[in-house]
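Q: Could you fold this chain for me?
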Amino acid sequence: MSDQIELVRLLVGDTTKDETDAYLLTDRQIRLLITESGGNTYSAAALCAEALAAKFAADTSASIGDVSVGGGVLYQQYTQLARKLRRQAALRTAAPYAGGLSKSDKRAVEDDDDRVTPSFGRDLHEVSSSANATGWRDTVEEE
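A: Sure. Below is the predicted structure, expressed as structure tokens.
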């Protein structure tokens, strides 16, 4: 879990200690947010960014090392970072699904009355019997 904590710190930018030799978030706080996010590092980093945004929302100004910035600016930056990390979490957790690889799996999916009806199927491009094979009219009108 220490590697995961370090990655969360890196993603949030909490990699340097302040003058009191402390990070913005403790390891315990990050561990709690990793657990809260189900172990998803990017979701945990987004939660950390939101926690830091909330922390700086109340501050009128903050000093990190030799740099002093208004709390409103830090709030906006951490809020934007949280949004970005949420998008990355969504992209990194999407997993492809290949259904119907076995006959029993295919039958189970087809028998599931709670599934969403597919918007296309096997005979999507089949021409109906009322049209010819090309779909064009048999006669051409002359001008």
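A (continued): The chain has a mean pLDDT of 83.
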